[in-house]
Amino acid sequence: DGGKKKNEINDLVSAFDNMNNELKENLNEATRQKKQMETILLHMTDGIIAFDIDGNIIHINPAAKTFLNLTTEEKFEEIFDKYNVDINLEKIIYLENWTSSEQKINVEDRTINLFFAPFKNENDRPAGVIVVIQDITEHVKLDSMRKRFVADVSHELKTPITSIMGYADTLLEGDYDSDT
Fold this sequence. Notes:
This protein is an alpha+beta fold. It starts with a helix and ends with a helix. Strands 2-1-5-4-3 form a five-stranded antiparallel β-sheet. The chain has five helices and five strands, in the order αββαααβββα.
């Protein structure tokens, strides 16, 4: 009977060792993935801010701090109220049909695009909001230049076309008069 108990104890110890090793491997894998994500977020040119359900910052990368001139840890409302962004954290998180929102703001001499998207936790419950921040200053400048170019070209073409139409009308009228 003592040998049987000893075998059961050894089996339990072996099972616990296997579970312990499996947990260590899972923890190491989770740590590796976390470090990969942190490295990616750290070196992204777009800004990323993750807010929890109460509007507290969970994660912010250096690009987001730079784009929004953040020096201290502020809450969701404090950050976006400074830039007159009409956005409501609860709407983003809780309204199913309002899954994301996009807004443009001006910060100093830059145009910044803000993209708000809710995220859920492991139980598929609302957990917070991710904000992706992109500097679209160059895109806005290029679009403005394109619009000016099209307006200039159409204006420049109107003058010769108007003259040509006037000459064409004169010629047609001249033809009509000579036929009668």
